[in-house]
Automatic annotation (TrEMBL):
PANTHER family: ESTER CYCLASE, POLYKETIDE CYCLASE SNOAL-LIKE DOMAIN. This is SnoaL-like domain-containing protein. One of its GO terms (biological process) is polyketide metabolic process. Residues 21-45 are annotated as: Disordered. InterPro entries: Cyclase_SnoaL-like, NTF2-like_dom_sf. It holds the Pfam family SnoaL.
């Protein structure tokens, strides 16, 4: 019994020492760490809300509202298959052309995940090619595809980067922009 009590006392002392050491190595008191975690969570939540509002505005075909929280020097990398589009105004012009060509563009079953500066949105997107786009004639055909949009926000809560993971070839084939792959 004495050995058990002694072992318990040693384990308690060791656990307490580790807790005290962890507080010092992680930047202070346990309370400070909780505040840091709360700050990171609130930043993630803020960023998620910014992206959610932007996506909702896009689906309402309100590009100006969608770009309300985009930094002037933002970069749209898309899926990397084309050169990046740099600057808020250039990106807005590209999106306005897209929204004109696919006015019923919408996302469904969207899932938002935020981690600090980064927000990801996964869902299914669809639309109908109703107006000419980049010199190509509209076909009135529809597309439906899965996509992940990845946004990076700065400390001010502005979107500074956009990346996406999708198959532009799938969409192009569905709407008649590209011949089906064999």
């Amino acid at each position: 019994m004495k050995k058990m009590i002694a072992l318990l006392a040693v384990a308690t002392a060791l656990f307490t020492a580790c807790e005290t050491n962890t507080d010092k190595t992680e930047g202070g008191t346990g309370e400070g760490n909780m505040a840091d975690t709360a700050t990171a969570e609130s930043k993630s939540e803020r960023n998620k809300k910014v992206v959610m509002a932007s996506m909702e505005a896009m689906m309402a075909n309100n590009v100006d509202e969608a770009f309300k929280n985009v930094a002037p020097d933002a970069v749209d990398y898309n899926d990397g298959s084309m050169p990046a589009v740099k600057g808020k105004d250039s990106i807005m012009n590209m999106v306005k052309g897209w929204m004109n060509a696919f006015p019923d563009n919408k996302g469904t079953d969207l899932k938002y995940v935020a981690d600090g500066d980064w927000v990801m949105v996964w869902g299914e997107w669809s639309g109908t090619w109703k107006n000419d786009f980049m010199g190509a004639r509209a076909t009135n055909k529809t597309y439906k595809m899965k996509d992940v949009d990845i946004f990076k926000l700065n400390d001010a809560g502005q979107i500074v980067e956009h990346h996406n993971v999708q198959s532009p070839n799938t969409m192009a084939t569905q709407v008649g922009m590209a011949p089906p792959k064999k």
